[in-house]
């Protein structure tokens, strides 16, 4: 507190003291007011906790086998065009396995063969129940709401269904929208949610990231990584594959090679191989990157100019190899 001036009388001194006290009280009140406002801001700005999916996976009656899908000496052709020639592979229980290869090597074909059990060379253990995602949305009823669609064949309760939808960025009243009113990306997310709460214990996903923007793709990555079941998927998006996959089935020259690890691990391993093999692998990776860019060009909000420039750069690299 400021001292009272020496020449000031008693009444003036009392007045000075009162004014000083009032000023200090005002300052104190302002400080407290600011603290309260800051505390409110901190509460508002605190990020929401991501709701955990409490899915009861035992309701899907999952298989106990170490290997849930396998093939031995698989051969398949479209007319004269050979796709697989005495190929073999295993899909491990609980794994997140990506099918990786150039366009036209048979990735989607293999998913179809597994789903339809169309070839004797492919063995699926009896307790496997397949949930198959592809782009035609045939599992959706456009006249019903999001929640009605998801709950139709669900073995999980509505709380789990709502949590999964929220994790996929479909929240609150949006669950009551008719599916026919949704965008392509939103329908993709509803299809996924429907699979996650169904009795399926093995998911086959064909190009799951089509139509999804970046935030939706990251949301899907997170949900897939938490999923207890087995996932076998195809995607041109290398970042998505790298984030989700813990194994690869690499399709090349009509055969299938198993690789333990994600895409980054695979690329690192390829860098240690002899030059001839390395060059061929590099050509394959460039072609696949070009296919990934071509797919992104149709995505909502895509920077087409930058993507086209990158596509031309890769094409030039391929031409010079």
**The CATH fourth-level homologous superfamily of the largest domain:** P-loop containing nucleotide triphosphate hydrolases
Structural class: alpha/beta
CATH architecture label of the largest domain:
3-Layer(aba) Sandwich
N- and C-termini, Cα separation: 81 Å
SS field, number of helical segments: 10
Main CATH class of the largest domain: Alpha Beta
Overall tally of structural domains: 2
Spans of at least 5 consecutive residues with low confidence? none
What is the H-and-E element order? HEEEHEEHHHEHEHEEHHH
* Overall outline: globular
Topology, number of strands = 9
Specify Rg, calculated over alpha carbons. Answer: 29 Å
Mean of all residue-level pLDDT scores? 85
What spatial order of strands do you see in the largest sheet? 5-6-7-3-8-9
Largest sheet: 6 strands, mixed
CATH-defined fold name of the largest domain: Rossmann fold
The amount of beta strand, in percent, is: 15-25%
- Helix content class: 40-55%
Give an overview in words.
With 321 residues, this protein is an alpha/beta fold. It folds into 2 domains: 57-268, Rossmann fold; 273-319. 44% of the residues lie in helices and 18% in strands. It has 10 helices and 9 strands. It has a 6-stranded mixed beta sheet, with helices on both faces. A 3-stranded antiparallel beta sheet has the order 2-1-4, with no helix packed on it. Helix 9 (275-296) runs antiparallel to helix 10 (304-319). The longest helix is centred in the first third of the chain and has 36 residues, at 10-45. The protein is globular, with a radius of gyration of 29 Å. The model has no long low-confidence stretch (mean pLDDT 85).
